[in-house]
Amino acid sequence: MKPLDLCPPGLVISSNGIVIQSMTSAPTILATCKQTRFHLLDENPSSEIDVEGLNIIVTSSAPESTEDVKTKTKGKAKAKAAGRELISDAHLRFKAGVHYGLLGRNGTGKSTLLRAMAEKLIPGIPHATRIAILQQTDEQEESYGAVLNQDKTVLESVLSSDESRNESARMADFLSKSFETEDPMQPVRAIRKIRHQKAEKHLFLAHKNASLKSGARGLQARKELKAAEIKLEATSEKLAQDADDIEADEVQADTQAAVETLQSLQSELEDMKLADLEQQARRILVGLGFKEEAFEKKVSTLSGGWRMRCMLASVLVQNPDIMILDEPTNFLDLLGVVWLENYLKQLRDTSETTIVLVSHDRDFINAVCEEIAIIRDQKVTYFRGNLAAYEQDFEAQKLYLGRMKEAQERQKAHMESSIRENMKLGKKTGDENKLRQAKSRQKKVDDRMGLQVSANGGRFKLNRDLVGWHEHNRAEIEVPEDERGATMSLPDATELRFPGPLVSLEDIVFQYKKTDRVILDTVNLVVHLGDRVGIMGLNGSGKTTLLRVLTGQVNPSKGKVSTHARLKLGYYSQYSVEELQDCGRAEPSMTALSLLMTETEGNLNEGAIRGLLSSMGLAGRIASDVPVAKLSGGQLVRLALARIVWSAPQLLILDEITTHLDFHTVTALATALSSFNGAILLISHDRFLVRSVIEGKRDTDHKLDEDFEGLETEEAEETQRRRSVYVIKQGKMTEQKNGVEQFEQSLVKRVQKLLSSA
């Protein structure tokens, strides 16, 4: 029988009880918590997290021993100098059954926080809480949390993803096999081994609880720890006992215990309803785009995108206390995104699972999330409502506090001027009343200037809202700044010496072999300078094939491809980031600056390249000192863009460019593309990006893109671009008169049929 996972490898608990960290791989996550001693015991699972005084530090390497942790965490320093502090004295609160959207700029610690939650590195999270996580690494090569067995089929891998059920099944199988032998001592050995493993797990939890408590609770916890040590020693002795030394009554008692335990486990597994679980797994896989015949394929034969879908299915099929989804829409087409939206919305009514979600897809967050959690300035704040409501409230708060600060600054300037005049006049004439008046007004300036509202939004009252002596009675008025990602700007397109279409496709037909299905069937497309063309469709419909034909990577089976004689083309493919990662691994010392210095072949000097990278959001030392292998996914997208725009192309072809971006960066990208004077051909399942860049529509709920140039700008300047959204289906390319909305509505109908038949 496989032993229980008692303590995840690499976990360390310090003797003072406030530090738990992961040492499984660099970098190391170190989490501390102020109120750990008051939390529930680890054997009590919870769908709610409420942790105050949370600090999360990421260090470059793990301490050599537990003693190092003890030494570095004593006193107030708490080893803060040992690494980068991402979260400081924050309140982490996720209420049971609520769906949260987690926001924060790249580098604020979203993924680190999610991993710390999943690994239960945060002391306030009970060990028994079941957490299912889908999280991608920076390299986008594998997902932490959802582990697939490469040798199993897709369906088998999804069904075996629930570790609690797997553990029960393993114990039941182990006990069942012990009764199949002719040796009457096998059931005795089996039940004793199970008892020993349970004692080991209980000792780990007892040690953890004893480390996290002090005072009377700590005394009781240490007593329980001692009892757990004694029990483990007793089970160890029983397990090592020779068969000849075991009394007959012990054999009978242990055999009976093995029978009862097996019956209990079998009953527990029956209650889990494996048949229903399989049916649910099939529904989820179909919703995520798998065909029935693909269920029997081995996971090892799947491409990276389909493997990610399988991982997502393995998380959705579970019924955990907390479900964490980090960019679940990556590698999904729009049908999969719409299905996942509706599936997660259904969970609100059918499940008590708490969901924490990170996504770059604005429409997806708005549809799924009931509340927003924001990581900003190393704190976690909360807003009740979806992303659109949060942004409206943010703008209202910015306007309100900005006006309050301006009014108060004017009042303060007037009062300080009055104070100076009274002080000058009082000293000149010896008028004590003037001097007292000046001191009284100075006291008001010192003590009563600041935030004029209470925490509840009402008028600030000193005796109610700030009881006791304080050096400064009121907080300074801080006007919130826009939560934008680093801005982006694109160079203007090179001028054409003579007019004409940039690219023209005439009656294009494409099939890989004459006996294969037709992928593109009589496709026609003309793109002129300034045009905005969006192409949408399900995975496998032929979108990328169309781009390969257009860029000359493959020749059409029939038809004609024509390009402008002076055309400069910039092509961002689905694999641009992966190509950069391969380059980074091949040359570990290569930076963004050195890469472009090589690729531009002297056409740009170092200053021009630095300027280009800075306009993409890769400024200073990030461009020149950080190796490409160490750049995040979002930074690699910016570098990939710089590689294709340095030559000032007239046509940008972008294939699923949002995969590695957060939604702040997607907003910056949309704004940059909106003002590009060349032509854009975009393939994306991000509805916000297609609506804004291709259709030119400003999101009415989104106020962070003031520099956006769309239909309103064209009307004001009396200019007009050609804006078209096409859908490829069964080889045919059809223009959508109502754009993204028309395609989305057709998919919603399909999803409703899928969910209603489930």
In short:
Helices cover 44% and strands 16% of the residues.
Describe the structure.
- There is one protein chain.
- This protein is an alpha/beta fold.
- Among the domains are: 388-465; 503-568 and 648-756, P-loop containing nucleotide triphosphate hydrolases (Rossmann fold, 3-Layer(aba) Sandwich); 582-644.
- The protein has a seven-stranded mixed β-sheet with strand order 8-7-9-10-6-11-12, with helices on both faces. Strands 17-18-19-15-20-21 form a six-stranded mixed β-sheet, sandwiched between helices. A five-stranded antiparallel β-sheet has the order 1-2-3-4-5, sandwiched between helices.
- Helix 4 (163-180) runs antiparallel to helix 5 (186-211), helix 5 (186-211) runs antiparallel to helix 6 (215-240) and helix 5 (186-211) crosses helix 7.
- It is globular and about 100 Å long.
- The two termini are 36 Å apart.
- Mean pLDDT is 81; it is low at 1-20, 62-81 and 138-145.
